[in-house]
Amino acid sequence: MFAPAGPRFRPIFAVHVKILVVSNYFPPYHRGGYELGCGEAVEALIARGHEVHVLTSDTGVGRQSTDGRIYRWLRPKSWRPGRRMGSAHRLLTRELKIQRAFVRLCKRLEPDVVFVWNLVGLSVSIPFLAQSLGIPLGYYVFDDWIRTWEADPWHPSSGGPRKSRYAPILRKAGSLLDLAVPEGRLPLPHVFCASRYLERGLIDSAGHVGKSSVVPWGLRLAGSQQPHRLLFCGGAVRHKGVHTAIAALDTLVREHGRKEVTLSIAGSTSDVRYLAELESWIAARDLQGRTRFLGMLDRHELIRAYGEHDIQLFPSIWEEPFGIVRLEAMASGLPVVSTRTGAAEEVHQHGETGLFFTAEDPESCAREVLRLLDEPDLFGGIRERSRQEIEERYQLGRVMDSLESLLFEAATGRGQTPRC
Length: 420
Hints:
CATH superfamily of the largest domain: Glycogen Phosphorylase B
Strand content: 5-15%
Order of helices and strands: EHEEEHEHEHHEHEEHEHEHEHEHEHHH
CATH architecture of the largest domain: 3-Layer(aba) Sandwich
CATH topology of the largest domain: Rossmann fold
Radius of gyration: 23 Å
Number of domains: 2
């Protein structure tokens, strides 16, 4: 399924590692950059000569299947605080399937390391099972999922069983069915975070990380062209601040007379009510001819969209853990106008590799966009420095060097008890 894209990366180790990647979603299905990044990491690791297998869900495929080394054997379920989790029988049945699938695959493959990407909707038992089987663990953390997965009924809260009406039933039945019931703290021996923001949050919440490293994501570089349009990329949901981008467009048109400016919104939405609000707001201000909803784009369509725009707006309200679209825009020559939330200041320097504005302040956003439109030297300088920043810090090959090194360290058991 995976053919190495572009020139073959030079392995940094003569010893090749057998890796089992575990992720809730995997391409071609994706909900955002996390899943696409996982797919690219698998491609790159294969290109470096490692044997890589993927255990994931059947989401986007519709049926459980095996495609080469991609095992779509799982079925995810979103655990959210306050959300009804279903009957204990249903939870046990689902947990039984997940655990048996994982153990079965580990016994078949005998991996050197289990590389966890995103377990949201799967089960907290997976890393505990890997630990019990004596298989080293590594994580690549791209958002806050580790800090929120205590909603899983199997999660041991504060070193003990989760206190819910399900806990006694699940734990007793789990023992009878020979299921792994987590005890103690989540095993986090090797964790790679996409930003220092994520690393700080993880350490503050978990407090028992064995070794953590910050490994920002990277890109394969490509050329670009600029037809001077504004672009928003991401889910069209409230916490991403799409309404701020639209209000900034309105400010540019009405208060500053920039009638040539347009805005394209690339991304799907699960919030139908919010989308209706945006469309109503656009119609009320007569912005229909200047605003386009592009919907969910695949990777090739997204690259084309970057090439057809000249400024990216990143108006996120929530504490954005990283944001691959920042890097993609920078690599494509689009200056990024962003809020300062989350890891933003790890990626951009104001006036050098991007511009910042205040979250939910469309006038502030419009002012920074105006600077780019009216100051060619600023626009060109940010483009040039952004591209240089990508080349120096965020190329995918450099990321894979770091991940490969850390995986090798995890797999060879440095700093931990060797496997028998």
